[in-house]
């Protein structure tokens, strides 16, 4: 992308949750270093305070943001929020002849990605990319996410410097079928919840047989030195249930539910996801939906009866 092209881009961002806030912060820093700025909007206005202090502009509404942006990123909690926001954005885009590029970064079901893509495709001047990300909130703030890209190849190449400002690596699926990126994200999250289920089961057994948790953690750090294993292993070993820097049970249920449906729709099975889903459901029923999803060890501690 040339400097002139970047100067012509007016970048907007919708959604400043735990992931979106870190991503937007890094994108704004990149834009500011090139003499520009990010315009943001969030349903809860107080979440815009931090990035406003860094020099980002705050839109008064989605309409205001759409009217001043020709590249719009979205990072939202669930499918319903994504559909609601894009119904508004596409309606506003019908009144604009200038191209608007939409970059959707949320974890959503593939059918939702397809639906939004079709809404945008009704107006050929516009473009839609599905670009979910991998990484915990601390990785988002550090600009160390894994960025997944799907959609029009020319548009992906054009926006690559923006993607790079928020990520450590870009995984280009090289397909215009945006549902593939959503499927890819769900499969990646399956490996995450599978890791958590294994760790929780292992630590629960270690507690039953009175094995020192620090020794078990040392084994994991030595023999399975992957970020997810180390990160969630430390969280479980410490006894922390806080969602800070992690992922709440409620959103975990959404993602695991999506991956189970994806598997069922394609004649596959995910037994590990089925077990984890039941454990997450039990946590939510106990009023623990706001805890980190690694809290499933609490269900496992209750023993076999709790698994029925």
From TrEMBL:
Residues of the 6-phosphogluconate dehydrogenase NADP-binding domain: 10-171
Keywords from the UniProt entry: NAD, Oxidoreductase
One Pfam match: NAD_binding_11
Annotated catalytic residues: 185
Similarity remark: Belongs to the HIBADH-related family. NP60 subfamily.
PANTHER family per record: 6-PHOSPHOGLUCONATE DEHYDROGENASE NADP-BINDING DOMAIN-CONTAINING PROTEIN-RELATED, OXIDOREDUCTASE GLYR1-RELATED
Name of the protein in its database record: NAD(P)-binding protein
Annotated source species: Linnemannia elongata AG-77
């Amino acid at each position: 992308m040339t400097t002139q092209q970047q100067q012509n881009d007016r970048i907007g961002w919708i959604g400043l949750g735990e992931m979106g806030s870190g991503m937007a912060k890094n994108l704004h820093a990149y834009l500011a270093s090139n003499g520009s700025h990010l315009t943001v909007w969030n349903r809860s206005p107080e979440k815009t305070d931090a990035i406003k202090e860094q020099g980002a502009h705050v839109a008064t509404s989605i309409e205001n943001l759409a009217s001043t942006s020709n590249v719009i990123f979205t990072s939202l909690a669930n499918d319903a929020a994504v559909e609601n926001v894009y119904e508004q954005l596409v309606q506003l885009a019908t009144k604009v002849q200038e191209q608007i590029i939409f970059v959707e970064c949320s974890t959503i079901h593939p059918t939702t990605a397809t639906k939004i893509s079709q809404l945008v495709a009704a107006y050929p001047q516009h473009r839609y990319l599905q670009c979910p990300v991998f990484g915990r909130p601390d990785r988002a703030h550090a600009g160390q996410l894994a960025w997944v890209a799907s959609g029009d190849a020319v548009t992906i190449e054009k926006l690559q410097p923006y993607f790079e400002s928020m990520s450590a690596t870009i995984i280009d699926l090289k397909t215009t079928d945006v549902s593939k990126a959503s499927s890819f994200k769900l499969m990646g999250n399956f490996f995450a919840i599978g890791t958590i289920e294994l760790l929780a089961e292992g630590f629960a057994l270690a507690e039953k047989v009175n094995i020192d948790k620090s020794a078990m953690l040392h084994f994991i750090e030595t023999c399975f030195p992957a970020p997810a294993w180390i990160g969630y292993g430390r969280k479980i070993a410490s006894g922390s249930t806080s969602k800070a820097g992690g992922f709440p049970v409620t959103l975990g249920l959404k993602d695991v539910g999506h991956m189970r449906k994806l598997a069922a729709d394609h004649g596959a099975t995910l037994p590990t996801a089925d077990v984890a889903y039941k454990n997450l459901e039990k946590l939510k029923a106990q009023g623990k939906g706001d805890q980190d999803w690694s809290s499933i060890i609490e269900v496992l501690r209750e023993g076999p009866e709790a698994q029925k």
